[in-house]
Amino acid sequence: MDANNALLTEVYLNAKLGADALNTMLSKVGDQAFAQALQQQAAEYKQISDDAMTNLAQRGQAPSRKATVVQAENCAEIHLATLINKTPSHLSQMRMEDDMTGAIQVTRALHRYANAEQPVKDLADRLIQLQEGHIQALKSYL
To answer: What's the pTM?
Structure first.
């Protein structure tokens, strides 16, 4: 797989998992303002995953099916982690940790695939900036 497809796949998987995790969490949220913040974040992740998927399709590639397996694992983890504590503070902490992990993964992929085309790297940078912004926004719910 060339650098462009590899980086796009990483961006797609990372953004898709972020959106899916947020959508799973939404069923656990009782606070309306917090739910709206999470819905907005899910929509932003979906936009980036859609952009990555479109870019992959234009290159004759399909998104990885790996997301389905990881999504099932993440869904189970979210359900277990929220059995006792569904407060906005706890959910924010979970999301902040996931966003930080995602930003680290995408940053490593950017370094690994440094020879990818600039528009592909720009999409990865957009995802990292989004994740960093989410972390800052979620601090108010801690």
So the answer is: 0.90
